[in-house]
């Protein structure tokens, strides 16, 4: 699948190499949303913005090594994204099936739904990146403790020492 703006392909290889079916489903939904928007030439601003948010989710997933996606930190954010992308696909399909007159008459309703789903996608991306941070922290902690040694350098001086002026002011 190709991006309209920058012709950057959305990874199909990731879907084949990832173990969790949830990630494959998310990538499939992302491709479906994009292809529906392109096929029906939905140049509506809301559709294009939604497409960009979906692309960002895909890019975020691509940055996670496939063998790390089985970590429990990713389970809930991925489930939330799958639900959200399913709703996005349903809305894009409904919008593309609507006549121009129906799109015009229900424009406020469609705009509200698109805005709600874009906000959910933003929240989903934030939760996914938070899970990535937690996962990274856990991996770093495991690596630093794998040899049983504590690798922190001791603090020089006491953290809570009193601040005293270098010149005696009272004299």
Topology summary:
Blueprint: H1 13-17, H2 21-39, H3 45-62, H4 72-97, H5 100-105, H6 107-145
Helix pairs in contact: 2-3, 2-4, 3-4, 3-6, 4-6
Provide a descriptive summary of the structure in words.
The protein is 66% helix and 0% strand. The protein is built from 6 helices and no strands. The chain has helices at residues 13-17, 21-39, 45-62, 72-97, 100-105, 107-145. Helix 2 runs antiparallel to helix 3 (45-62), helix 3 packs parallel to helix 6 and helix 4 packs antiparallel against helix 6. The longest helix is centred in the last third of the chain and has 39 residues, at 107-145. The chain is elongated.
SSE string, helices as H and strands as E = HHHHHH
The largest sheet is: none
Our measurement of the CA-to-CA distance between the termini, rounded to an integer number of angstroms, reads 78 Å
Please give the share of residues in helix. 55-70%
The SS-based structural class is mainly alpha
Q: What is the CA-atom radius of gyration, in angstroms?
A: 24 Å
Low-confidence stretches: 1-19, 160-165
Q: How many beta-strand runs?
A: 0
Query: Number of helix segments?
Result: 6
Shape by Cα distribution: elongated
Quaternary organization: single chain
What is the strand content?
under 5%
What integer is the average pLDDT? 78
């Amino acid at each position: 699948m190709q991006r309209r703006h920058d012709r950057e392909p959305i990874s199909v290889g990731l879907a084949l190499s990832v173990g969790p079916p949830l990630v494959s489903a998310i990538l499939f939904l992302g491709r479906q949303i994009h292809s529906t928007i392109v096929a029906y030439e939905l140049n509506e601003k809301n559709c294009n913005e939604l497409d960009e948010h979906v692309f960002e989710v895909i890019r975020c997933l691509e940055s996670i090594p496939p063998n790390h996606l089985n970590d429990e930190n990713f389970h809930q954010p991925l489930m939330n994204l799958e639900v959200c992308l399913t709703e996005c696909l349903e809305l894009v399909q409904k919008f593309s099936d609507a006549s121009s007159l129906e799109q015009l008459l229900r424009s406020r309703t469609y705009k509200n739904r698109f805005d709600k789903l874009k906000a959910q996608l933003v929240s989903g991306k934030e939760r996914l990146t938070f899970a990535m941070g937690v996962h990274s922290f856990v991996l770093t902690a495991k690596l630093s403790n794998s040899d049983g040694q504590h690798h922190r350098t001791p603090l020089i001086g006491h953290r809570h020492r009193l601040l005293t002026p270098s010149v005696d002011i009272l004299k």
